[in-house]
Amino acid sequence: MSMSGGVRAVSFTRHGVGAARLAVQREAFRAACAERGWVAGGEVCQIGAGGGKGRAWAAVRRLVRSRRYDVVVVDGLDTIGATEREIARELVLLRHAGVRLLVASTGWDTVNPMVSDLLVGALRTVAVEAGAVAA
What is the distance between the alpha carbons of residues 50 and 57, in angstroms, rounded to a whole number? Predict the structure, then answer.
């Protein structure tokens, strides 16, 4: 199997406050796939708040776990969670489930476990500091 041709990507987009326009998110997905030689597959769109609690997000995780797709592509980290703590939790869950995530806007790819570790560490630090400020 060729390394480049075999990667099937699914796009997770979010339609809601704070999210980029869907057209922008779709374009980011297509560009990221084209750049890497990946197969641009389907798109799952969530209406409203980011990731975590949404049914659409759960559907995307299932698609990857069932090997229908190899990687989930999001435009930005805020697509998968509303807060730093939520995003960190999602990243940990994705890794435990063996789900690879590419953040198109930054090029972060959790195929490298260090990327995931660094992101989770940074997000948790921000969440703790935000909590201290809120206290």
Answer: 9
